Predict the structure.
Amino acid sequence: MSRVISFCLLSVENFFKRGIASSYFIPLQSWTGSNDKSSVLLKGTQSNETNDYYISHPPFTFLLTYSIFKIFHITPSEFSLQILGMILHLIGAFFVYLIVLEYFDRKGFVLFFPGIISYITYLFYPCYDAYASVSHLC
């Protein structure tokens, strides 16, 4: 498991276990075991209970992921984060297609060769990382 996906997964799991309001809507990077309190992925600000809050990253990504998982009753796991990342990537590729249609002033939803090329290019761009898409909202 990559560091990026474990960072997001740990925060979302903590939201599920402890409640989102108990962590002040901030990504919590501490495990729940008393022996694991000092084991964190990325050092942040510690509370009196030695919980480590990661405040160097905007929390919207974690809140969005938590909300989607909560609404659809999905258990947080590496696989579910990857599927969510792929769905967001497909939606992004579709918006690229719509932007190209708008740029060339095409009306309605039509098959348009430059739009299809843009869609495929975005979809299979080699720098895309399914692990990182959720935690950075690519």
